[in-house]
Amino acid sequence: MEKEQYQQLEQSVTPKPPYFKNAAKAFFVGGIICTIGQAVSLFYIIFFDFTEATAGNPTVSTMVFFAMILTGFGLYKRIGQFGGAGSAVPVTGFGNAVISAAIEHKSEGLVLGVGGNLFKLAGSVVLFGVVSAFFVALIKYILVTLGVVSW
Amino acid sequence: MMLPIVVCMALLSGCTEKEKFIVYGPPQNEEEVEAVLKEEKFVERTTVIQYDDKMLVAVQFKPWDKWKKAKLEKKLQKKFDEKYPNKDVFVSADYKIFYEANKIKKDQLEDNKLTDKISELKKLAQEET
Amino acid sequence: MVIVFQSKPSFLAGGVVAGPLEKRSVFSQYFDTIYDDERWKMETNEQGHRKMIQEACEILMKKSGVNNLEIDFFLGGDLVNQMTPTNFAARELAISFIGLFSACATSVSSVIVASLLTELGASNLSIAGASSQHNAIERQFRYPVNYGAQKPQTAQWTVTAAGFALIGKHREECPCIEAATIGKVIDYGMDDPFHMGAAMAPAAFQTIQSHLEQRNQQFYNYDLILTGDLGQLGLKLLKGMLVENGVKKEELTLLRDAGAEFYGQDEAFQSGASGAGCSAAVFFSYIIQQLRAGSYKRVLLVATGALLSPLSYQQGETIPCTAHAIEITMK
C-alpha cells in the first residue's frame, strides 16, 4: 500500500473530533468555573473592603488555590478531559499548568526541579501574554495619538 | 450540572424586585435627583445619600453598558457637578459602593458615623489595585 | 529478515506484575501480581518503575525455582530516558545485562535476542521482557500527569506493567519459539503523537506480510495473530491494509490487538492501551498460559513500537515505527 493510499485510509478510519459537542462542554464547564469565580469575587466585595476594581487579585488567587487542591487530588485532569478549553482558558487552567509541573518535578529537588520547571507549560502563556499586551497597547496608543479613538 | 447556573440566576433576579431608585437623607430636592438619574437610559439602579452639602451617588448600570463603566461614571459625575455646583458630589458605579450605600440606608446610620463611612468609601473607590 | 530457530528455544515461564489501574484490564486475572501502589512504595515514579521490573523478575525466578546466579543473561528495556529503570533493576538483579530499545516492541525484540543467544549455546537461561510505568512515561513523552489537557479519541493510555519471560533450551512441555522476524523501520508520514496506532499499523502490516511470505504460511495457519499496542484505531487500520492486500474478511477474526483489548471497552482510555508493558504483560501471561493449556497451537506475536521522542516530533519529524514478530508453537 502506498503512502497516499494509506493516508486516505487513515483519514476515513480516524473519527473526526466532535467539535460541536466539545464546544458545548467547554461552554458549560468554562461557564461554571467563571460563575464560581464571580461568586468568590462577590464574597470579597461584600465581606471585605474590596471594590469591583480591587477584588480581582484575591479572586484570582482563590481560584488558583481551588485549582491547586483539585490538581493535587488528581481531579483537575478529569475536568480537563471533559471540559477541554473550558477548563484550560480560565485562570484555573493556568494554575493547573503551574501546579501539575511543580508536583511532577518535585522529585528533582526544589531549585532545579520545581523552580526550573514550574513554568514549563505556563511559561509560554506568560511570555505571549506580555508580548501581545504590549502590541495591543501600542496599537491603541497610536490610534489615540491619531485621534481615531479615545482612551 | 445546571444547578450552579440556576442558583446564580435566582440570586440576580432577587435584587430586581426592590425599589430601583432610592434617595436617602434629609428630603431636599429628592425628586429632582431622581429625575436626573432617570433621564439616563444606562442607569439601572441607584442609591443616593445626601448629608450636609455632600452627596453620594451610587449607581449600577445596565449589563451591556458596564463595558463603558468608567466613561459613563465620568459623564454622570460631570452632570451632577454642573447641576449642583455648590455641592460636593461623588458618583460611583462600583458594586461595593452601591452595596455599602444600601447598607447605610438600611442601618439608618447616625450623621457623625455617616461622614466617616462615606469618606472611607471614597478612599476605597479610588484605590487602584 | 526471518530467523528460523533450529533448536526451538522455549518459554519456560512468565512473570507479570501490574499497577493498580490494571485491575480493570480484561487480562488482569492472568497477571501474577497486581500492586496497589503505582510507585511500589518508592519515592519517585522512576524508582517505582525499577522496583516493578525487579519484582517481575523475582516472581519469574521464584516460579521457575532458579536464582539469579543460574541465569546467564538479562535482556530488556523500557521507555524512560536512557532506560534507567531497567538499567538500575539490572544492577539489583546482578545478571549479565544488555539494554534493548525498540520502544514498545522491546517485549519481542528482547525475546528474539534471548532466543538467538540460546540457539548459539551461549545461554542456558535468560530473562527477556519489557516494562512501562504510566506516570514516568507520560511525563517523558507528553505533559505532567496532573495537567488537564484534553486527550483526543485517538490517544492511548500507557499501562503500568512489567512482563518478563524466562527463555531456555527446548522443552517439550513448554511453548517454543519457532521463528522470528526482525522488522524494518517504516514511516508512512504520520506525525501525530496522540495517534500512534496510525503510525504503527503500517509497520505491523509489513512485518506480518514478510513473515507469512518467507515462512510460506497463510493467515489461517495461525490460531492467533496478536499485535502489541495498536489500539482500536490502529487495529482497524491494519485490518484495512490486510483486506486491501487480499486477506479474507473472515480470516481477520484471527487478528487481535492486546492494546485494543487491554482495558475492554472503557472509554476513559480512548483508543486503548499502549506502552512496552502492554504487549509484554499480555504476551507473557495470557498467551503463554493459553498455549500451555493447549487453547492455541501456533501463535504469531507482533509487537509494534513507535520510535519517536518528544524532541523529534516537536521538531516536526514524522514518527518512524517498527514491528518485530515471533512465531510460537506448542505441541
From TrEMBL, chain A:
<keyword id="KW-1133">Transmembrane helix</keyword>
<dbReference type="InterPro" id="IPR014203">
    <property type="entry name" value="Spore_V_AC"/>
</dbReference>
<dbReference type="InterPro" id="IPR005562">
    <property type="entry name" value="SpoVA"/>
</dbReference>
<feature type="transmembrane region" description="Helical">
    <location>
        <begin position="59"/>
        <end position="76"/>
    </location>
</feature>
<feature type="transmembrane region" description="Helical">
    <location>
        <begin position="83"/>
        <end position="103"/>
    </location>
</feature>
<protein>
    <submittedName>
        <fullName>Stage V sporulation protein AC</fullName>
    </submittedName>
</protein>
<feature type="transmembrane region" description="Helical">
    <location>
        <begin position="26"/>
        <end position="47"/>
    </location>
</feature>
<keyword id="KW-0472">Membrane</keyword>
<feature type="transmembrane region" description="Helical">
    <location>
        <begin position="123"/>
        <end position="149"/>
    </location>
</feature>
<dbReference type="Pfam" id="PF03862">
    <property type="entry name" value="SpoVAC_SpoVAEB"/>
</dbReference>
<keyword id="KW-0812">Transmembrane</keyword>
